[in-house]
Sequence to fold (109 residues):
Amino acid sequence: MRITEEELSKCVEAYKSGESLESLSKRAGLSRATMTKYIRSRTEIRKPGEWKGEMAARTKVRSEEWDDLGKVPDSIIAERAGCTRQNVSRLRRSLGIRSYQWNKECGNL
Fold:
């Protein structure tokens, strides 16, 4: 089954706003692999667990929250950024930044 350019454009926009490849492929009547190929040819494919849609746009604009990593508790940064504490902790650890609690106990603040 072929998909028209107009339908594909709608799928790409839906994907950019956060809809999953699975739901898009079911709606279009295509396999997930085919939908992935169509989407990949027109935009970047998100990695599993990557933020989607509005949340991704918000974090790009409000990057000043991330300057406080390790200086304030992850839960406070998560509240400001509008995401979960686990996401903030994962980001902080991936950047090699020690936790607020560790910095506080060692007197690094």
Q: What stands out?
A: Residues 53-106 form one domain. Residues 53-62 have pLDDT under 50 and may be disordered.
